[in-house]
Specification:
There is one protein chain. The protein is α/β, with parallel strands linked by helices and 276 residues long. It has a single domain, classed as pyruvate-formate lyase- activating enzyme, CATH 3.80.30. The protein is globular and about 45 Å long. The strands form four sheets. The chain has an eight-stranded mixed beta sheet with strand order 1-2-7-8-9-10-11-14. Bound molecules: iron/sulfur cluster.
């Protein structure tokens, strides 16, 4: 596992304590069109094909099963937040189900930690319901340089539908980069459904490594308004320029989440029991 530093120089992932990659490599091939027209590639791919090349002999677009790393969280005794898959998508369509279940099993065993997964393939997530109580299940905002804003809006609504089917103590959305008016789409969703299917949001700017592009202020305001109306805690990535600054986590941390999870599962049980 890799310890994440919060030393203000932009290195490390601010919303977690450790990264852990029992699987590595990714076939999603994400790219982003920057506001200046340049195309940015996935940061993990850059690392895998640069600094960490030795660990990726078959390139980044390949699935690696790192069995030697599987039990690493059990060796860390201090309760920590652990981001699972900073160099992968654990729930990618190419990952064997058996491997995902082994990783989930270790998360459940290491019950003193809080695990944060993040996927760009939410359609697969409900397959693993219910998630262990100490697992926060995240989905990234749709992106891709061929995606239009209208296409991204449709994709975001599809993601929200899939997130509504996830049974986890905390579901979250990583809205990074905020590259279109996602708040407006969330508003439309709420008008139709009356709720947001996540309990935490991470918000960040677009970057190609060399340069950072801030979202339009109106997009940030719309997003914060809709999240605020639904009491969703917000964590700003260090690349976002905004004031007042916010670094919030799901209210009450894991203990609160566990209570929520119990309520959620018992209410779903009632729904299931009363269903025709
Ligand atoms: S899902 Fe994540 S790791 Fe995979 S290509 Fe996209 S940004 Fe990179």
């Amino acid at each position: 596992m890799n310890k994440q530093q919060r030393n203000g120089n932009g290195r490390g992932i601010e919303w977690t304590d450790w990264t852990w990659n029992p699987t590595a490599g990714c076939l999603h091939g994400c790219t982003w069109r920057m506001p200046d027209g340049s195309i940015a590639e996935c940061y993990a791919k850059k690392i895998a094909e640069g600094l960490a090349k030795g660990a990726y002999p078959l390139g980044f677009e390949h699935h690696y099963w790192r069995e030697h790393a599987l039990y690493a969280p059990l060796n860390e005794k201090t309760p920590s937040k652990i981001f699972v898959g900073s160099m992968a998508d654990l729930f990618g369509h190419w990952v064997p189900e058996e491997q995902i279940r082994q990783v989930l099993g270790v998360m459940e065993q290491a019950h003193w930690h809080t695990f944060q997964t993040l996927s760009k393939y939410p359609v697969r997530l409900p397959e693993f319901n219910p998630f262990p109580q100490n697992v926060w299940v995240g989905v990234s905002l749709p992106a891709g340089h061929l995606l239009s804003q209208a296409g991204a809006s449709r994709a975001l609504k599809a993601y929200l539908r899939q997130m509504a089917g996830i049974r986890a103590s905390v579901r979250y959305m990583s809205i990074e980069p905020l590259w279109f008016d996602a708040g407006e789409v969330l508003d439309e969703w709420i008008e139709e459904r009356g709720f947001l299917p996540f309990e935490w949001a991470i918000v960040g700017a677009a970057t190609n490594g060399a340069k950072t592009f801030q979202p339009k202020p109106a997009w940030v305001i719309n997003l914060l308004n809709v999240l605020g109306e639904h009491s969703i805690p917000v964590f700003f990535k260090g690349n976002l320029e905004w004031s007042p600054w916010r670094e919030e986590f799901p209210i009450g941390g894991f203990a609160e989440s566990a209570t929520y999870w119990k309520e959620l599962t018992s209410s779903r049980r009632v729904i299931a029991e009363t269903a025709p």
